[in-house]
């Protein structure tokens, strides 16, 4: 099973109500040991679950927002940021370390990152895996997986920009196409 390597990012409110931006990089390792990066300054509504489902499950801030951060990145750009270094290499080069008892990921140089296209099916399946890795029950994760299946924004609004249009460590990766 996959797992988040880094601690929860610090977040701050943006000038758009209902949206926060991450202040730290978040790193996730898939079940086949690929490392995925959600770079700092990513805008997110913080919802791991769609609003309709939240009426059933409760306050969205109760759940691990790291899943939402990665999912928002995948959905917004139809791309993922894969790290080309292993955990050992990240530690050896000082990009991954412990600070005040939490695992943090420093900015990984762009030459060690690979931007790859992703499908909606891959995105939804990876989101499900992330939720399970955070301890969300399989029933709740399946409900969410079912809910994001109907995300029409994937087809109508998102995926028109590349993440490469941003300086990911210095510029807000804000809303694309008004989302």
Strand count: 10
Overall mean pLDDT: 86
Give the biggest beta sheet: 5 strands, antiparallel
- Beta percentage is 15-25%
- Level of helix content? 25-40%
Distance between the termini: 31 Å
Within the largest sheet, what's the order of strands?
Answer: 1-4-5-7-10
Q: How many DSSP helices?
A: 6
Give a verbal description of the structure.
The protein has 179 residues and is α+β, with helices and mostly antiparallel strands. It has one domain (3-151). Helices cover 31% and strands 20% of the residues. Strands 1-4-5-7-10 form a five-stranded antiparallel β-sheet, covered by helices on one side. Strands 2-3-6 form a three-stranded antiparallel β-sheet, with helices on one face. It starts with a strand and ends in a 23-residue tail after the last helix. The relative contact order is 0.20.
Task: Give keywords.
about 180 residues; alpha+beta; 5-stranded antiparallel β-sheet; 3-stranded antiparallel β-sheet
């Amino acid at each position: 099973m996959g797992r988040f390597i880094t601690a929860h990012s610090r977040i701050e409110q943006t000038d758009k109500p209902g949206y926060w931006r991450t202040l730290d990089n978040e790193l996730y390792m898939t079940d086949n040991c690929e490392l995925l990066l959600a770079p700092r300054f990513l805008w997110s509504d913080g919802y791991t679950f769609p609003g309709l489902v939240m009426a059933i499950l409760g306050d969205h801030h109760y759940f691990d927002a790291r899943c939402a951060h990665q999912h928002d990145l995948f959905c917004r750009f139809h791309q993922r940021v894969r790290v080309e270094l292993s955990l050992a290499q990240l530690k050896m080069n000082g990009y991954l370390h412990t600070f005040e008892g939490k695992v943090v990921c420093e900015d990984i140089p762009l030459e060690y990152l690979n931007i790859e296209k992703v499908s909606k099916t891959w995105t939804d399946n990876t989101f499900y895996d992330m939720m399970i890795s955070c301890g969300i029950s399989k029933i709740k994760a399946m409900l969410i997986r079912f809910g994001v299946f109907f995300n029409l924004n994937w087809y109508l609004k998102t995926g028109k920009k590349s993440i490469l249009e941003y300086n990911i460590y210095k510029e807000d990766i804000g809303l694309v196409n008004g989302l």
